[in-house]
């Protein structure tokens, strides 16, 4: 589970440079025309993202992240509405629905199959919140009971995210058909109004700063807690040093936290720079995460909690469901790995 959290926290490094580059490209297309060659590199933005996250990673824990979570949520709603609205506007402007029920065409049947498998991995990536569900629940106050609040929040969030996923995905494909980019805002799908596209991408950038921390804080807590228990007498691991700077509250610095979190951010940034492939990486991470954390462990815990006997009807149904999801995960992983290798070699 720890390695999966590390991998999932990498994903924001892939989005960040693409959004910053998209802002530059949007402005370039606006100045030079849609046929202009507006290409920009990724490395500088990945390094910038890593530098920002080194600072943000010094936030102690989830309980100190409320302000960042609020900002990230507002940004998420903003760029989702913009993407949805631009897709609808493009369909209206076209006067027709592009694409087909068969989806994007491929050179061979094998390529089509690999793309379908890769898409399964991307879909699996769409609902990865099970990794941080318990950590978020731990920050809630009672009454009412935390689990009841979290259950209600989960139902609402799943409904809202599914609505936006379907709307953006369906209207994006209806707007561009087989030419639909992997990321509507950066692909490059929308050119005008360029200022609105820039605003949406800027919102994604701010959202990702918080998103990285949401996925990384559980890793920080796990590693630092383990070292604290393993070396209770170590001053390097357990001691805090206070620093007072003008106009801000006192800073409490722990040397182990500073070193570990810096190395962690640097390593994830290096992985992102080595494999800067948007859809393929999302598919791999989604497949790795989906079955074990979203299906297998919850099903097994339900069996233990509810004392479900073997070979009962409920046991058979849930086992069948788990096995089917395992097959989907394997297919998504294979397709995404094939796409990643092809992109790397290409």
TrEMBL record:
It is a multi-pass membrane protein. The keyword Disulfide bond does not apply. Keywords: Amino-acid transport, Auxin signaling pathway, Membrane, Symport, Transmembrane, Transmembrane helix, Transport. Residues 19-341 form the Amino acid transporter transmembrane domain. The chain crosses the membrane at residues 67-92, 155-174, 284-304, 316-337. GO terms for molecular function: symporter activity. Coiled coil: none annotated. It comes from the Eukaryota. It is found in: Endomembrane system. GO terms for cellular component: endomembrane system. InterPro entries: AA_transpt_TM (IPR013057). GO terms for biological process: amino acid transport; auxin-activated signaling pathway. PANTHER family: OS05G0424000 PROTEIN-RELATED (PTHR48017). Carrier protein involved in proton-driven auxin influx. Mediates the formation of auxin gradient from developing leaves (site of auxin biosynthesis) to tips by contributing to the loading of auxin in vascular tissues and facilitating acropetal (base to tip) auxin transport within inner tissues of the root apex, and basipetal (tip to base) auxin transport within outer tissues of the root apex. May be involved in lateral roots and nodules formation. Belongs to the amino acid/polyamine transporter 2 family. Amino acid/auxin permease (AAAP) (TC 2.A.18.1) subfamily. This is Amino acid transporter transmembrane domain-containing protein. It comes from Populus deltoides.
């Amino acid at each position: 589970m720890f390695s999966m959290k590390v991998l999932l926290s990498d994903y924001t490094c892939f989005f960040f440079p693409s959004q910053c580059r998209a802002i530059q490209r949007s402005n370039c297309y606006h100045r030079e025309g849609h046929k202009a060659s507006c290409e920009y590199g990724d490395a500088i933005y990945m390094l910038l993202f890593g530098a920002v996250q080194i600072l943000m990673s010094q936030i102690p824990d989830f309980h100190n992240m409320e302000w960042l979570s609020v900002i990230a949520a507002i940004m998420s709603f903003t760029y989702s509405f913009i993407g949805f609205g631009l897709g609808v506007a493009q369909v209206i402007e076209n006067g027709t629905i592009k694409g087909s029920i068969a989806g994007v065409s491929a050179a061979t049947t094998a390529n089509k199959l690999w793309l379908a498998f890769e898409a399964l991995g991307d879909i699996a990536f769409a609902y990865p919140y099970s990794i941080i569900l318990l950590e978020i629940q731990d920050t809630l106050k009672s009454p009412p009971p935390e689990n009841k609040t979290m259950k209600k929040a989960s139902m609402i969030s799943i409904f809202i995210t599914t609505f936006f996923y379907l709307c953006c995905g369906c209207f994006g494909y209806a707007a561009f058909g087989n030419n639909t980019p992997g990321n509507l805002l950066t692909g490059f799908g929308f050119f005008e109004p360029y200022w609105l596209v820039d605003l949406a991408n800027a919102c994604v950038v701010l959202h990702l700063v918080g998103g990285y921390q949401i996925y990384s804080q559980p890793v920080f807590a796990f590693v630092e807690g383990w070292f604290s228990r393993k070396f209770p007498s170590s001053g390097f691991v357990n001691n805090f040093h206070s620093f007072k700077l003008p106009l801000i509250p006192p800073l409490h610095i722990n040397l182990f936290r500073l070193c570990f979190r810096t190395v962690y951010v640097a390593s994830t940034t290096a992985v992102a720079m080595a494999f800067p492939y948007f859809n393929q990486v999302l598919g791999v991470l989604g497949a790795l995460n989906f079955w074990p954390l979203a299906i297998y462990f919850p099903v097994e815990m339900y069996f233990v909690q509810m004392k479900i006997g073997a070979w009962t009807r409920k046991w058979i149904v849930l086992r069948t469901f788990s096995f089917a999801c395992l097959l989907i995960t394997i297919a998504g992983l294979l397709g995404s790995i094939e796409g990643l290798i092809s992109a790397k070699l290409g």
